Amino acid sequence: MQNAYISSLIFAVLTSLSVATTAAPSIKAEAPAPITAQMANVEQSTKVNLNTADAEVLRRDLFGIGAAKAKAIIAYRDSNGPFTAVDELLEVKGIGKALLEKNRDRLAIN
């Protein structure tokens, strides 16, 4: 009796699955543009001008720059005049080569 019940149950499940897979329409959706590619375009177009940016812009738009480093950049700019090259950012306390290279494509001197 149990064998007949289990066999019937398995048959019903397999039949339901086969009907469900053949009855479901095949929908092919267009692949949306990758979000990372869209964000890369936005990031590349946003350059931070070291000579005009305020602390909030520096903190928000640059990797690894918090409030303290942003204030240090502005303090350096105020005491030494405008930046003449992006590499001059290495003179600011707390800014090293790795941090500069991470942000080099985002920086501008105008």
List the topology elements:
Layout: H1 2-23, H2 35-45, E1 48-49, H3 55-61, H4 67-80, H5 97-103, E2 107-108
Parallel strand pairs: 1-2
Helix pairs in contact: 3-4
Q: What's the mean pLDDT score? A: 84
Please report the total strand number as a whole number: 2
Q: Give the oligomeric state of the chains in this entry, treating copies of one chain as homo and distinct chains as hetero.
A: single chain
CATH superfamily of the domain at 43-108: Photosystem II 12 kDa extrinsic protein
Which residue ranges are poorly predicted, with pLDDT under 50 across at least 5 consecutive positions?
none
Strands ordered across the widest β-sheet: 1-2
Distance between the termini: 87 Å
Main sheet record: 2 strands, parallel
Give helix and strand order, one letter per element, not per position: HHEHHHE
Estimated radius of gyration: 30 Å
Number of continuous helical runs: 5
> How would you classify the helix and strand content by structural class?
mainly alpha
Q: At the first level of CATH, what is the class of the domain at 43-108?
A: Mainly Alpha
Broad shape: rod-shaped
CATH architecture type of the domain at 43-108: Orthogonal Bundle
Keywords: Signal
Protein name: Competence protein ComEA
InterPro entries: Competence_ComEA_HhH, Endo/Exo/Phosphatase_dom_1, RuvA_2-like
Signal peptide: 1-23
Describe this structure in words.
By secondary structure, this protein is mostly helical. It has a domain at 43-108: DNA polymerase, domain 1 (Orthogonal Bundle), CATH 1.10.150.320. It is built from 5 helices and 2 strands, in the order H-H-E-H-H-H-E. Strands 1-2 form a two-stranded parallel sheet. Helix 3 crosses helix 4 (67-80). The longest helix has 22 residues, at 2-23. The relative contact order is 0.13.
